Amino acid sequence: MPRALSARNLAKLALVVGGGAIVLGAYGTYRIWDQGAKDERRPAGAIVVLGAAQYDGRPSPVFAARLDHAVALYLSGLAPYLVVTGGKQEGDRTTEAATARSFALARGVPAAAILVEDKGRTTVESLSAVSRILDGRDIRAAVFVSDPTHMLRVLMIARDDGLTAYGSPTPTSPVEADTWSRIDATAHELGGIAQYLVQRWTGVTLGVSLP
Asked: Residue 203 and residue 211: Cα distance in Å, rounded?
């Protein structure tokens, strides 16, 4: 009898844990999609565009969409600086930031207006460095550009780094091109947010940080 009761309690516990995970996942998905649907652009000290894959100096379609949007915001007069981010990934010959800088220069952004963060290999690393770069210029508020599904995590980290952060999601992101891409990106972000929160609250690093 005690053994049967124990098994029953374990089943109940598994049901509660599983139900809780579903609720948290649903809430996290809602938050990711809700933030990704908001364009909070406004005058600020800088526009920050998050790096993405590049191929020997040529931005991937995802990266090019981010850069197109960030450059358009800069050229509209929204901010005096454009901050490009991203270091080298394994096997790269150049950095995401260098690729972004070349892209921006070719589209009319003055060299003096481009600030470069070229060491970070994850969102956390890049935003930590961006915070220091902006702090050095006494800039407290910035508009951040990335894919819609990435925006919630970007803004969480930037605000934790002490910045007043506004999101302007890329409207032409290939990530939003079809349902499955969006679902895959959302699952990636749920994992990334969970990992970030665990590291922030406990100081424990869970393996390799997600980009």
From this structure: 18
Per-position DSSP letters for 173-185, written without gaps between them: -GGGSSHHHHHHH
Beta bridge partners of 46: 142
Task: From 53, 50, 51, select the one nearest 91 (Cα to Cα).
Answer: 53
CB 70 within 8 A of CB 47: yes
Provide CB contacts within 8 A for 170, sequence distance 6+: 65, 66, 68, 69, 145, 146, 147, 148
Distance CA 28, CA 156 (A): 13
pTM as predicted: 0.88
Neighbours of 203 (CB within 10 A): 7
pLDDT digits (tens, 9 = 90+) for 95-130: 999 999 999 999 999 999 999 999 999 999 999 999
